[in-house]
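Q&A log
Question type: sequence-to-structure
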Amino acid sequence: MTGTVIGRYKILAKLGEGGMGVVYKAEDTSLKRVVALKFLPAAFLESKSRRRRFIQEAYAASALDHPNICTIHEIHEEKDGQLFIAMAYYEGETVKDLIRHGPVPVNLAVEIAVQTAQGLAKAHQKEITHRDIKPANLIRTQDGIVKILDFGLALRKDDPKLTKSGEMVGTVAYMSPEQIYGEAIDHRSDIWALGIVMYEMFTGVPPFQKAYVNAILHEIPPRVTGLRPEVPADIEAIVHRAIEKRPEDRYQRVMDLLDDLQRWNENRGTPAPAVTRTMTAAAAKPPAAIAVLPFENLSPNKDNEYFSDGLTEELISALANVPGLRVVSRSSVFALKGKIGDVRTVGALLRAKWVLEGSVRRMGDRVRIMVQLTSVDEGYQIWSERYDGEMKDVFAVQDEITRAIVNKVRSRFTSGDSEVLLRRYTDDIEAYHLYLKGRYYWNQMTGEALQRARQYFEKALARDPKYSIAYAGVADYYLTLGFWSIASPTEAWPKAREAALKALEIDASLAEAHSSLAYVRLFFDWDFRTALKEFQRAIEIQPSCSQARQGYALYLMQAGRTTESISASFEARNCDPLSPFLNTMVSWSFYYARRYDQAIEQCRKVLEMTADYFEAYIVLGLAYEQKLQSEAAIEAFEKARALSQENPLVLGVLGACYARAGRRSEALSILAHLTAASKERYVAPISFAMLHAGFGDKEAVFESLDRAFAVRDGLLGYLRVFPIYDPFRDDPRFVALINKIGLPEGGQHAG
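Response status: OK
Response body:
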């Protein structure tokens, strides 16, 4: 129709097309202005109901003289029956276009929501329900004004028969449950739809993935802050209240939602009383948290560092068993070792209400332990104590410290007077010290330290064969070898399984052992149902077990449930906010969800915190490569190569990147290096598969994948989501391999 003149309008260009009409940009030749003309599609000209709805749009919008609602100039019918609405034309960008670039900045998203709510308030005042609020129907002009478009499905109170009983009207992804059921609806359905739009703006993704009808009716969406932690809790509360499934649980008036948004806007992050009242129980009262900072070793013999560190870990484990109390995990508190400053700063950094500090002075068989508990909010000490005794009494001392802490803070986070005691896994004090030394070296995560860790764990077990937590230590040692392909999977993972099962045989309630076993089931046995159950059991026993939570997130990644994996990754990270591994896992979840900009941003945050963490450089390089920024990718991979001491997995992705960048000689050099190394020690076949993928050598890729399958390489679990394999997904051999592994289907629950 471009160039056609209809009445006084000259058609300039087609703007878009939807179920309710075709929209063109046009010139009003009489008033010399640009307008938008919306035509009823020719196929519906004979439909009385469609014509009535089309006319209804003009009536509904024209009755609403408001800055945030599209202005209607006229409705016109040509002699041939052609029907169109002339409306204002706006230069700008729809909210749908904004979200395509990722999450919208918080302040901008709030401003868009405020203006949309203002427009809806006007419509609701006139007893008009829009019924099709969605990102495509909201445009933000170049002046920053939000306009609500398309009142074609609007419901007027004075015309309730426009929709037949039981008819489902609207865009499914934004329909309220009552719309889907075909029930009578009111303005609260618009509130639901605005809540969905807000959720998308703040997170960059819709709250319900695929199978919309079932999800909207039955599923609980991931929390906003689980996908984007920087969103204020008050804003999250507003969003989640707007999308409560029962209309009576939502905001009852859009003005109430608007008031909460505007109050937050005015305070910019200061908690607003009205918002606080609307928060769900989970959002209004997050689990109370305590951080046990590394105890200072004041012993004359500095070799006793293992004991002060071990005492810290034992107290963390003991407090983690207290219902209602969140305990900051080990790696986060130990990241602050030697650089602890003001307690309020530390508390804010670790998101903790209380901070426990202490020191240990060991002299022969005597020990002195000083402890103090500080309230972060008040900034003052609420309890302190000194303990003097013999090393043989250390269990009783730990038990006494734990009980004293719980008694001081119990009323603030839990109810009841249940006794909380330190779990004693052994009565042998020498076995206990050997175990602490094993954990001390295992936490260093170097090749030599790992070997020493295994030796100490085994010595502890030689003294006490029923020492369950020491078996969990042995399991973790072999998990590390298998996870990073330091040893052959067939050598490492079965030994990890054996140790985890032995630990559970002794103590079936040991969360660490359930978590270790789950990793074996996931990465080696490929028993995904059992892996899921074991992760869930570990979390049930110890909700703050970050190892189990990170494993659950990895399970979701492998299953292709990417939105859920992002949320689970953040939940794991929140248990241990300074852990470089868990923060990097968040970037992995973004990477596998193909959200590369967010993966890069998260990697930068990790490297600001821990500049030499090589895994963050791996994800950074992979994300840059997907954005076709090969030089930046190679730079990141080379840093990972140096920091990981030539780890074959790093060399595999680096070689692939060189090959795709056309730097064939460097890629071939890495291939030769890996080939030579494989003759002397274990080199994961998956390293070769990734490298050959860079060359585009399909036959070599599948030959390497077959070898990886033969040794049960755990990284095959990521076949479904790893972008590096995209060129080979249509090959029947790829599908067959996924089926042989038994990977749960993307988006499906395996349990």
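Response note: Residues 106-125 form the longest helix (20 residues).
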